[in-house]
Amino acid sequence: MFKQSLIVAASLLALAACSPANESAQNTQPVAEAAQAVPQTPADWEVSNATITFLSSKINKQLNSVTEQSRFTASQAVLGKDGGFKMEVDLSSVNTGIEIRDQRLKDWVFETAKFAKANVTGTVDVDAVSKLAVGETINLKQPLVLDIHGKQLNLEADLAAQRISADKIMVSTLSPVLLDIKAMDMVGGVAQLVEVMGLSSIVEQVPVSFNAEFTRKK
């Protein structure tokens, strides 16, 4: 009887060793190997048509404020393996949801006939970005230079960069970057908008947000 009990116990232990829970433990090794397989060396990254939005706040004659969100629908950006970041925004792609307002922005404010593009440049810690594991995020206080409407502005953007797969990194602003209408020499065009729209004023600070998925070039 005692011998039979030993045989049963040994059989149960053998079954436990082959149970799904044990298989799950054994499967952790390929997951760890997959994480280590993420490329972590500096590389070139690129994005097309990032999500770039901006807010405009208008004050009417009754001194009520209305804030509206608009966007640019055409842009491209690259992050080089040397850390050089360059983004070009087609200002004629502005989209406020109202066609005539888009045209007024292009003609009066951006003056796209003379200043068709806005360019953003900077130097990023690409080594820190490249070493991100999948799911890992880092925050960056990123100095940038904005070239727009014939002016160059020094900016700082609070950014979050998250690796969402081996070859993709999502970059977004943690808080909007504030642009000043005066600094961009757009006061005259904005004044025309105020007049034609029958407003009291348009707020001179414009919050801009950015979100883009960068793809690692092979």
What does this structure look like?
The chain has 218 residues and is an alpha+beta fold. It has one domain: Lipid/polyisoprenoid-binding, YceI-like (Lipocalin, Beta Barrel), CATH 2.40.128.110. Helix content is 27%, strand content 44%. It is built from six helices and 13 strands. The protein has an eight-stranded antiparallel β-barrel. Strand 4 and strand 5 form a beta hairpin. The longest helix is centred in the first third of the chain and has 16 residues, at 2-17. The model is unreliable at 1-36 (pLDDT under 50).
Provide tags for this entry.
elongated; disordered N terminus; 6 helices; alpha+beta; Lipid/polyisoprenoid-bd_YceI; TTHA0802/YceI-like_sf; about 220 residues; Lipid/polyisoprenoid-binding YceI-like domain-containing protein; eight-stranded antiparallel barrel; Lipocalin; signal
- H/I helix tally: 6
Tally of DSSP β-strands: 13
Oligomer: single chain
Shape, per Cα inertia axes = elongated
Termini Cα gap? 67 Å
Give a quick account of the main beta sheet: strands, pairing sense, barrel closure: 8 strands, antiparallel, barrel
Give the helix/strand layout.
Layout: H1 2-17, H2 20-26, H3 28-36, E1 45-48, E2 51-60, E3 65-72, E4 75-79, E5 84-90, E6 94-95, H4 99-109, E7 117-123, H5 126-130, E8 137-148, E9 151-165, E10 168-173, E11 177-180, H6 187-196, E12 199-202, E13 205-216
Antiparallel strand pairs: 1-4, 1-13, 2-3, 2-12, 2-13, 3-6, 4-5, 5-7, 7-8, 8-9, 9-10, 10-13, 11-13
Helix pairs in contact: 4-6
